[in-house]
Amino acid sequence: MQKTALITGGGQGIGRALALRFAQDGYAVSLVDRDKEAGLEVIRHIRQYGGNAMFMCIDVADEEAVGRWMQLTHEDMGRVDVLINNAGIMANGSMLELPVSEFDRVIAVNLRGTFVCSQQAARIMKSLGKGSIINIASTRALMSEPDTEAYSASKGGILSLTHAMAVSLGGYGIRVNAISPGWIETADWQYSPRAKKPEHSERDMLQHPVGRVGVPYDIADACLFLASDQTGFITGQNLVIDGGMTVKMIYEE
Ligand code: NDP
């Protein structure tokens, strides 16, 4: 039976690249996104090339809706092999002024949403005796710019949740890992009427030891690797994918 990958926030950006890459690799793909048009565009594209894809427009912070997604995917596609918790949001604004409700919303989507989706997917994976959960964190879990408390805290929480779930679920054959992307350019991976050509200065590129900004396939290819049986001995880890940006020292002159 065809392997199935479940992807949150699969309509745009990194999630769109994840959906296309896993479909190209032969997976059936089940996506959710809160942007309906974006999600439908992705599954139309996958089906046009003969792939098997389904989409539901839900909010990953809604536990009941996540339950319906898991159940429908299991019924329609027969199995749940891989879950990628990719949907994420930021809150903008000064730390001193940020409404606490906005802090709560970021935690509800990024951290609680990751737990809810993982819990429900793991119940199905347990019956198969196998599975791979990949949580998309961020280099902002490890370092910060001003006024990013909610986002950074949610991503730091995802790293802790990753090693905790890896320990809890290891006995069921389920591996749990995180990927922390650095700067990944997604302007050209949005719903097509909103997509834009990316523009980067030389300075943008040179702050990366590899000499360029990241692209969504940098993350999607690493997810394919972590989903594969080749990585059966890797669990509870955080893979930083940032072109070396976080290991580069910065000296201001
Ligand atoms: P995008 O905003 O380009 O795409 C995210 C998609 O997820 C959007 O379609 C968005 O819908 C959807 N979404 C947001 N919230 C929810 C929700 N509650 N339920 C369902 N769908 C939702 O994001 P990126 O591709 O840039 O980021 C993907 C992940 O990677 C995020 O977790 C982000 O934090 C992480 N990341 C990204 C980096 C980057 O440089 N791009 C760097 C480090 C980490 P809508 O447009 O309506 O909000």
Automatic annotation (TrEMBL):
Keywords: Oxidoreductase. It holds the Pfam family adh_short_C2. The keyword Oxidoreductase applies. GO terms for biological process: bile acid metabolic process. It comes from the Bacteria. Its EC number is 1.1.1.47. GO terms for molecular function: glucose 1-dehydrogenase [NAD(P)+] activity. Residues 3-186 form the Ketoreductase domain. InterPro entries: KR_dom, NAD(P)-bd_dom_sf, Sc_DH/Rdtase_CS, SDR_fam. Belongs to the short-chain dehydrogenases/reductases (SDR) family. This is Glucose 1-dehydrogenase.
